Amino acid sequence: MVTTHQMSTAAVYGAGGYLGGELLRVLSAHPDIEVTQAISRTHANERVGDRAPNLDRFADLAFSPADAAVDADVAFLARPSGEAMQRVPDLLERGVRVVDLSADYRLRDPSLYARVYGRPHADPSHLDEAVYGLPELFRDDVRRARLVANPGCYPTATLLALAPLVKSHEIAGPVVVDAKSGTSGVGAEPTSTSHHPEVAGTVLPYGTPEHRHVPEMTEILRRLDGGAPPRLVFVPHLVPLVRGILCSIYPSTGPTGDADRWSELYRRAYGASPFVRVGPTPRLPWASGTNRCYLSLQRSGSDPVIFSALDNLGKGGASQAVQNANLMLGLDETAGLRTAGFAV
Amino acid sequence: MVTTHQMSTAAVYGAGGYLGGELLRVLSAHPDIEVTQAISRTHANERVGDRAPNLDRFADLAFSPADAAVDADVAFLARPSGEAMQRVPDLLERGVRVVDLSADYRLRDPSLYARVYGRPHADPSHLDEAVYGLPELFRDDVRRARLVANPGCYPTATLLALAPLVKSHEIAGPVVVDAKSGTSGVGAEPTSTSHHPEVAGTVLPYGTPEHRHVPEMTEILRRLDGGAPPRLVFVPHLVPLVRGILCSIYPSTGPTGDADRWSELYRRAYGASPFVRVGPTPRLPWASGTNRCYLSLQRSGSDPVIFSALDNLGKGGASQAVQNANLMLGLDETAGLRTAGFAV
Amino acid sequence: MVTTHQMSTAAVYGAGGYLGGELLRVLSAHPDIEVTQAISRTHANERVGDRAPNLDRFADLAFSPADAAVDADVAFLARPSGEAMQRVPDLLERGVRVVDLSADYRLRDPSLYARVYGRPHADPSHLDEAVYGLPELFRDDVRRARLVANPGCYPTATLLALAPLVKSHEIAGPVVVDAKSGTSGVGAEPTSTSHHPEVAGTVLPYGTPEHRHVPEMTEILRRLDGGAPPRLVFVPHLVPLVRGILCSIYPSTGPTGDADRWSELYRRAYGASPFVRVGPTPRLPWASGTNRCYLSLQRSGSDPVIFSALDNLGKGGASQAVQNANLMLGLDETAGLRTAGFAV
Amino acid sequence: MVTTHQMSTAAVYGAGGYLGGELLRVLSAHPDIEVTQAISRTHANERVGDRAPNLDRFADLAFSPADAAVDADVAFLARPSGEAMQRVPDLLERGVRVVDLSADYRLRDPSLYARVYGRPHADPSHLDEAVYGLPELFRDDVRRARLVANPGCYPTATLLALAPLVKSHEIAGPVVVDAKSGTSGVGAEPTSTSHHPEVAGTVLPYGTPEHRHVPEMTEILRRLDGGAPPRLVFVPHLVPLVRGILCSIYPSTGPTGDADRWSELYRRAYGASPFVRVGPTPRLPWASGTNRCYLSLQRSGSDPVIFSALDNLGKGGASQAVQNANLMLGLDETAGLRTAGFAV
Fold first, then answer.
1. Which residues in chain C have their CB less than 8 angstroms from residue A285's CB?
2. Of A170, B9, C92, C319, which has the highest C-beta tally within 10 A?
3. For residue range A172-229, what is the model confidence (pLDDT) as tens digits?
4. What are the residues whose beta carbons fall under 8 Å from the beta carbon of D168, sequence distance 6 or more?
5. C10 and C36 in contact (C-beta within 8 Å)?
6. Span A8-151+317-328: which CATH code?
7. In chain A, which among 134-163 make CB contacts under 8 A with chain D?
8. Which CATH architecture has domain C153-312?
9. pLDDT tens per residue, range D37-59
């Protein structure tokens, strides 16, 4: 086929992990982005097809080593926090746009980063430039960005649920966020927490006394609120599922919340966003493997409760990174992201 | 063996259901109570061993029909709400002690019962006499009772977690109770909610806008508080497990809660209760098949969070009913209930 | 966009069930087939988007009633066996190509159909014309077919695994096929077998003394063998998963099987088939939501064992039906079917 | 209470692992055996109650270090293969009876042990004395034994299912054994195989080309057969469950097997064995936490198939070890083992 269609090129760091593998999966069906480098410290020089037989489009692509020179329109960094800030300066200098899936560029204040992640920030000069990659809230900024900090899975689910209320100063707080997550968020490395006999028969609260995502969420809520955001009481739980997050969110507004006005706020906030839907009680398979977030506004007695569901590897990770890259590259926001989720 | 040991006798209504089956299972190893009648509308005249090969002690016992004349020291009523209030007057008249596992005698106010359950109460005259069967809170009343209303699974987990605080007026409210439950609470009858493909791949919030257990919990909290109990925001979720409930409980006390004083309140409340343990983050297998409730007091940021875990068929159902019967019959509270739960 | 691209049209019967819903899901991203009718007895006149919020491309399409007049290039019949044979004569007469996902046209002999399904066949005159829709074995026949009998999920997994050996008369038999299936194969209707508490904690063998798929598999093996096919000992088991089938297949060839020759047989059989891969031990997520079947040839001691994995709703159902329709309509065999499966 | 009841004493090696923990759990309710030493290399000097809050009878018992001097009537060795043979000579010399839950004393031939386990046997002089601890087959030998080799979980399920047929030379072979196991058999140490995201969404065959349990099973079948036992084709699979093994066993006897004669063989073999039941299709919860094995004889077409179900930590591990100890100590075989399993 003769075509004048010009594909953008992409490099994926951490391609041997769960987020990196999901990036390859999503990009394997992308009409406009071609993966030219799949970088993996552990699997360098192995064929992608041997590690991931599900990805037959990349059957013969060899993993590049961690120090490979990257030449691509966009680089996805799906590596643990701490590594991106070592790589970003050089990538930006080479003219490579960056979507970082780690936490390195999510907080603007380097001293807060140091407190939360236990090490100084190695690249504070780019913190102000980094755009928080939640396109439904910051779409225009993402379009212009060279460097996008892709949000964590919990913050994506929580912030999409709370943004319309916080922007309109509808809630005072505290807001209880009780999150239930599948185990793929733990990553590909075995741990005692994710050992099947330990986690398959229980619901496991963790992250007390404070989960690392709380400062990230609070900072974004502050930007939305423009002042004093509601206090979050955030407790994540592992549930015996692999993919998916459901957040049950309890704003302390008491019996006076106005259901109709709230519905209207959400309609206005997300009417133009193809990946956020407000409707009935969500089911995780609807979101599985997709870039969708399903929201539902309900009442428990006279109190409001909001449910928010997404795939932690999808809208909470890899596919949101592709959405960001689409915007940064001037492509259709939904390119490569139109697959529908499962009924079951 | 010649023995003067006198066994008490028991009849189990609803012996073909999950709660009734669990009653038979627990009683099959009870040293002082002997099941003489296993009553089942559906399985009348079948052998218990044919329906439940796990219960080989009862292999040759035949299920009695629903209208069997009961002659026993205690009757367990493990039937849907609405049936117990038809049977209790006659049983009491015959001198049979009753532990009702349905909701029929949990609310003292017949008009509240009518509102919540959608039908008038058929036996209002015994509502005042009925003792709420949470022995850790009402042990002496249970000892003297002819009629015990065995609590629901969610109220047991929630009330044991909140009682020490409410009695001491430590919390104002609202209190968010986010409950995660296995599916056996649905009962043995197939429904679309409990259809495996529908529930196995998700976390399913339900019970909005108001779950039937809320009035029950609120009534007991009112008795404990002596006045205006904290408002509960209670949302149950089905998780892909069979047995077990974990409640994550968020009291709105703000950053001023006093951890040491709270720990002392729980120690004092449950020090003499063999089935309630306060300690680290609980795991559901510890409670599985047992009469135990595991509590844990923790903090999320500066806010308190309490975790409460039990087996909905055990401490949240059948084994608590046996604990109540033990007390009513003057037996050791722990008789037949000493089996330890699983590590995994 | 001005385009001369002509979409083929499709009607989906049984669009409210699991197979019908998966057909809608797959077709929602199909570049060349447009669903013009989603037919559902139960949900007639409801909007698809209200029943299936995951299918937002069809948000505003209304379900048609069961007796709707169908005008489409192809009709997918995803209804229980017994109904297709009532509809097919009329559809063919109207010039509509048919892919039947039920068992009605899988057996050529109407008396065998009557024995297996307990009713006479209502349309024996089309049995000879119907093509068994396993494209990897009968691709040219499918291309020319007006009526395709889409195989069952177990037969697809089993026949793809055994065909190269049976065609080459490599195995005598009996062949043990121990199949493990997720519960979505049960369908959307709740049953006691698929009640979550019953199936989530066990592996449940069923289908003894003879599963309905055995005659189907035996008939196809006979065609491949040209004479006396190996006897199958087929036992399906429900496992606590929603999607996916793994068949472990034990051919009785004894210690003399030649691994190299066998590998070569499979390479030759499936080298040109984009949806069958022979490789390492398969994992069900690789197949999830896709049209892929993963095969692996291994040894247990000196005996051969073959593993075959697919998604019962995908290659074992809806996506294979789309593959058949692609061939019948002269489209690219892989159109709409290129999404990669999950790593986890 | 004044009592003349004399408790036997027990030491448990490997008390911090899954099998060791299950031994403590079972023994915590044993009327005649008291655990006096819980030995754990990893947790020495910690309190059992801190590691295992489910075991409140042992809340204040401290784990002993690995080199503790053991003074007990019986020692349970729940440590990886290779360690028992280092400890047994000394224990026997001190007059301590030993139940070894590892593989060290299951094979009589030290050269076979060296081939299977990849190291020379360190205590070949006790191999002949060791009794294979399957009481249903070797009860009298166990009663007289000083050293019992507790069988593996797969061999227990397989041998109980096949013994009556092999003893009577009813089957020639090969016999396909397709085993499905929960993940607790992997042990408490995290591995990539047991990482929840990897195993929760699939059925994972493993152990090809030969599982270590095959020589063990073959050796016992040879003893039962008295000559040339049937060849086993054994393939284990991990299923997404924690506890439980179901073996589906396909003897190659062809269509001539005699169902009535077979039933009679099993009745005779197990009529006096309280822990083996022959009946309908077994369910794993029936066996969970118990010492029971459930067998079922069925047909697939004209071929026989046998299902065998047990708890790999129970009858396939810890509770069988207690059954063996009961016999060795002259106690009732069922002491401490009478708890009934779950319906669900």
1. 54, 242
2. C319
3. 889 999 999 999 999 999 999 999 999 999 999 999 998 999 999 999 999 999 988 9
4. D265
5. yes
6. 3.40.50.720
7. none
8. 2-Layer Sandwich (3.30)
9. 999 999 999 999 999 999 999 99
